[in-house]
Write a structure and sequence with these properties.
Layout (H helix, E strand, L loop, with lengths): L3 H13 L4 H10 L3 H6 L5 H19 L5 H9 L12 H15 L5 H20 L4
Helix pairs in contact: 1-4, 1-7, 2-6, 4-7, 5-7, 6-7
Bound molecules: protoporphyrin IX containing FE.
């Protein structure tokens, strides 16, 4: 029997190897807010797309029981004293990810979308909670 984290892992496998997945994600994410676009204005997006591939994988692996070292590293880099990514932006980040999965995972449905949210939430909350640390 597959766990929710297994279903998400398999969904990511179907979706993220398509060439445009990360490009579409950043298009969706940046279309949501001027503030978000501004944060990436000096970013080399080709490199960033590759980094995000790993970042999402860390969130999934964390949900599958891996230690939280990588998630803590993201919490540290995104915290107020480093990149200063306010916790309020993560809702739009997750919405953009779900929209991207809906387009790229041929087996996507509403239930799988909810499973994605439920599986990634603890890792995202850990990153948000490190904002002030
Ligand atoms: C849980 C969700 C997120 C994940 C998995 C993630 C992942 C990453 C990764 C892997 C990097 C590369 C540097 C590092 O390893 O720390 C990075 C950089 C960055 N992230 Fe995130 N991120 C997330 C959410 C966000 C949000 C919500 C924003 C803000 C709108 C954001 C803005 C940035 C910026 C501005 C950079 C640096 C870009 C540069 O080098 O110019 N991230 N992110």
């Amino acid at each position: 029997m597959s766990t929710p984290a297994d279903l998400v892992f398999q969904s990511y496998g179907r979706a993220c190897n398509q060439a445009d997945f990360f490009e579409y994600f950043y298009g969706a994410f940046m279309s949501k807010s001027e503030d978000i676009r501004a944060m990436f204005k000096n970013t080399k997006m080709e490199t960033q797309r590759g980094l995000l591939r790993g970042g999402i994988m860390w969130l999934i692996m964390h949900a599958r029981g891996m230690p939280d070292t990588k998630i803590r590293a993201l919490g540290e880099s995104h915290s107020k004293k480093n990149m200063d990514i306010h916790p309020m932006h993560y809702g739009l980040w997750l919405d953009a990810l779900i929209e991207t999965l809906e387009k790229f995972d041929p087996e996507f449905n509403q239930e799988l979308g909810s499973t994605w949210r439920e599986v990634l939430l603890p890792g995202i909350q850990m990153i948000q909670n490190m904002y002030h640390d």
